[in-house]
Write a structure and sequence with these properties.
The complex is a heterodimer of chains A (410) and B (337). Chain A is of the alpha/beta class and 410 residues long. Chain A has two domains: 327 residues, Rossmann fold (3-Layer(aba) Sandwich), CATH 3.40.50.970; 25 residues, no CATH class. Chain A is built from 13 helices and seven strands. In chain A, strands 1-2-3-7-6 form a five-stranded parallel β-sheet, sandwiched between helices. In chain A, α5 packs parallel to α6. Chain A is globular. Chain B has two domains: 199 residues, Rossmann fold; 124 residues, Rossmann fold. In chain B, the strands form three sheets. Chain B has a seven-stranded mixed β-sheet with strand order 3-2-4-5-7-6-12, with helices on both faces. Chain B has a five-stranded mixed β-sheet with strand order 9-11-10-13-14, sandwiched between helices. A two-stranded antiparallel sheet of chain B has the order 1-8. In chain B, β2, α2 and β3 form a beta-alpha-beta unit. In chain B, α8 packs across α12. Chain B is globular and about 60 Å long. Classes of the chains: A alpha/beta (410), B alpha/beta (337). Chains A and B meet through α5 and α6 of A and α3, α4 and α5 of B.
């Protein structure tokens, strides 16, 4: 018998806090190309180790290697780079617009651009994403107009959501982008329900759920996994592990589980971990998971290992809880630079063309911004009317709302 | 045309709706093969197949959350929460998601969803099988809240709810499932087969949401009630001999304010009755509305009779339940005021 002594309470702590030297030596990074690519109809029980590894395609020399390479043509890769660069520029301009008081709030994707941009290219028209607030790449890569995104961010007269939603809580059914809630994890089980509905209807469309590492602790994450598992829903369950849930490191949500992907194993859901900063790897894994869903093989859980290089939002200051240089020390690098280097290595891109593309993209984003600002910004110019505020609560306005609208004088 | 219990009427509503519209799907805990713990979905799986009526894992947030996704897809889910007391894990999905989806997406996505649940006490169900949480839903913009009091209405209102383009919370007073319980727990309940409101038309018909029914015409006092309390009020009126008008609200949101105002202006007195706890209950909203709209016609203060502000007890069920004696005393004191 052991001497148990007093019970000790355990609270996980990150390796390093501000002032310390960044240390990611605890994050094992497998070599690019080293993880096998099973057939999509593989028995999930035989690929459990994929939940503990990291699928990577781009190596340090910028070469695409291994069984997960070659899912994209040169044109598609160039387009992917442009999408990520556009998202990054869009973010920088909107971040600045928030600082200039043109809107109340903004959330950028810095360091995570590959995840949503590459995933979008693995979907087909009609498929539906249930995103969180950090997947605007789904819209950019899906061809949604930037001006419309900005109109929403500015809550101006042309805002398709009539000023009812916080900035960046976009909605576009036509672009396969479900209305963002702002509450965490609620959309994950809804995505499963949408996928179940598609199967009930004998449709061919699939759903993609999105969640962050921190929100996997929510009950709705577990609800989604049990429903997806029980009904073999045609869905890709994405977990974006960007290491930080505002100020809380991922260990608080993960607990004793080795990885977030491993959460899927207890539900019998095949789970893969992928290098989230590797555009090619993200696309290849997404394509694999989408095909499984489309072929009635059921759900797949995918954990994207990435790093939130920026603040959580414009209301956050990461220097208060993590070393400033931590982002530079992140071992999986920067997704834009990695794809750029790959394209240069392939001989289809150059530093000069990259600089030129950066300038062109900036011009395009600024032009969109000017156009959006002609419709107003949060505190100046035209905005949705007070009458709009009362519309759309129900399809038909009930008497009590009509009375209140009259009281309000509109 | 046949006499049906409220359970049969509710089942009939789902049956008719599923038969008419293949987008209607029904699921929940024990709902599929077994047909629900109250048997409201009995036979639906056999008739429509497992993809239209099926069992769900015990996860209310999952049931409602999945239903929201289905509604956004274009189906018309009608889900069962086994007891209203178990709805709280789904509250976030109902309040933050179902209720706001149309508004926040400016109609890009909508949520035609019905969440059915047995409500109220009187069955010795203790704290976890007796609650009446309607006010938690009437407080939420974007929801509709329905409480039927008889088989005919239950069927017509449920069909309306399933056909409604917005989310509807459908609270079924479980003490009324088999007969019009009037609060006299020591007496046997008349079965619906012997009550005229047990007469349920075959096939498709609707009772519109947002319309109250006057159950008893009267001139001296207005009783506002819904669900089980309609029959408790009827018993109290009969026993006190007061010529009261009894309004069965049927839908709490949207509320049929015109019917309420017309009645109270006529009678000059108003008693509000519900089984749910008093404080911040729906009765507070009703009393406020009556005061705001009928103040100069009132001859007595508006009185509320409700469940005490305690958790629903087990052994003391009939001390807790606002039965005909308590309602009768409120009617008398309002007449004397």
């Amino acid at each position: 018998m052991t001497d148990a002594g007093m019970l000790r309470f355990h609270v996980p702590e990150p390796e390093v806090r501000p002032g310390g030297a960044p240390d990611f030596s605890n994050v094992p990074i497998p070599k690019a190309g080293s993880v096998p690519r099973p057939e999509v109809d593989v028995d999930p029980r035989t690929i459990r180790d994929l939940a503990f590894s990291i699928i990577r395609v781009l190596n340090r020399s910028g070469e695409a290697v291994g069984p997960w390479a070659d899912s994209l043509s040169d044109e598609e890769l160039l387009e992917g780079l442009r999408h990520m660069m556009t998202l990054r520029t869009f973010d920088a301009r909107m971040q600045m617009a928030q600082r200039q008081g043109k809107t109340s709030f903004y959330m950028q994707h810095l360091g995570e651009e590959a995840v949503s941009c590459a995933f979008r290219k693995a979907l087909s028209p009609g498929d539906m994403n249930f995103p969180t607030y950090r997947q605007a790449g789904l819209l950019i890569a899906g061809g949604y107009p930037m001006v419309t995104m900005m109109n929403q961010i500015y809550s101006n007269e042309a805002d398709p959501l009539k000023g009812r939603q916080l900035p960046i809580m976009y909605s576009s059914k036509d672009h396969g982008f479900f209305s963002i809630s702002g509450n965490l994890a609620t959309q994950y089980i809804q995505a499963v329900g949408w996928a179940m509905a598609s199967a009930i209807s004998g449709d061919s469309r699939i759903a993609a759920g999105w969640i962050g590492d921190g929100s996997t602790a929510e009950s709705d994450f577990h609800a989604a996994l049990v429903f997806a598992s029980t009904y073999k829903a045609p869905i890709v369950l994405n977990v974006v592990n960007n290491q930080w849930a505002i100020s809380t490191f991922q260990g608080i949500a993960r607990g004793g589980s080795g990885t977030f992907a491993a959460r899927g194993l207890g539900f019998g859901i095949p789970a893969l971990r992928v290098d989230g900063n590797d555009y090619l790897a993200v696309h290849a894994v997404a394509k694999w998971a989408v095909e499984r869903a489309r072929r009635n093989l059921g759900p797949t859980l995918v954990e994207y290992v990435t790093y939130r290089a920026g603040a959580h939002s414009t209301s956050d200051d990461p220097s208060a809880y993590r070393p400033k240089a931590e982002s530079d020390a992140w071992p999986l690098g920067d997704p834009v630079i990695r794809l750029k280097n790959h394209l240069i290595q392939k001989g289809i891109w150059s530093d000069e063309r990259h600089a030129q593309a950066e300038a062109e993209i900036l011009d395009t984003v600024i032009a969109a911004q000017k156009e959006a600002e002609q419709h107003g910004t949060l505190h100046s110019g035209n905005k949705p009317s007070m009458r709009d505020m009362f519309e759309g609560v129900y399809e038909q306005m009930p008497p009590h709302l009509r009375r209140q609208r009259q009281q309000a004088g509109v | 045309m046949a006499r049906k219990t409220m359970i049969e009427a509710i089942r009939d509503a789902m049956d008719v709706s599923m038969g008419r519209d293949e987008r209607v799907v029904v699921f929940g805990e024990d709902v599929g093969f077994f047909g629900g713990v109250f048997r409201c979905t009995q036979g639906l799986q056999a008739k429509y197949g497992t993809s239209r009526c099926f069992d769900a894992p015990i996860n209310e947030s999952g049931i409602v959350g999945a239903a929201i996704g289905m509604a956004a897809y274009g189906l018309r889910p009608c889900v069962e929460v086994q007891f209203a007391d178990y709805v709280y894990p789904a509250y976030d999905q109902i309040v933050s998601e179902a209720a706001r989806l149309r508004y926040r997406s400016n109609g890009d996505f909508t949520c035609p969803l019905v969440v059915r649940m047995p409500t109220g006490g009187g069955i010795f169900g203790g704290q976890t099988h007796s609650q009446s949480p309607e006010a938690l839903f009437t407080h939420v913009s974007g929801l509709k809240v329905v409480v039927p009091s008889n088989p005919y209405d239950a069927k017509g209102l449920l069909i309306s709810a399933i056909e409604d383009p917005d989310p509807v919370i459908f609270l079924e007073p479980k003490r009324l499932y088999n007969g019009p319980f009037d609060g006299h727990h020591e007496r046997p309940v008349t079965p619906w087969s012997k009550h005229e409101l047990g007469e349920v038309a075959d096939g498709h018909y609707t009772v519109p949401l947002g319309k109250a029914a006057i159950r008893r015409q009267g001139s001296s006092l207005t009783v506002l009630a819904y669900g089980t309390m309609v029959y408790v009020a009827e018993a109290a009126v009969e026993e006190t001999g007061i010529d009261a008008e009894i309004i069965d609200l049927r839908t709490l949101l949207p509320l049929d304010l015109d019917t309420i105002i017309a009645s109270v202006k006529k009678t000059g007195r108003c008693v509000v009755v519900h089984e749910a706890t008093l404080t911040s209950g729906f009765g507070a909203e009703l009393a406020s509305l009556v005061q705001e709209n009928c103040f100069y016609h009132l001859e007595a203060p508006v009185v509320r009779v409700a469940g005490w502000d305690t958790p629903y007890p087990h052994a003391q069920e009939w001390d807790y339940f606002p039965g005909p004696a308590r309602v009768g005393r409120a009617l008398m004191s309002t007449m004397e005021a």
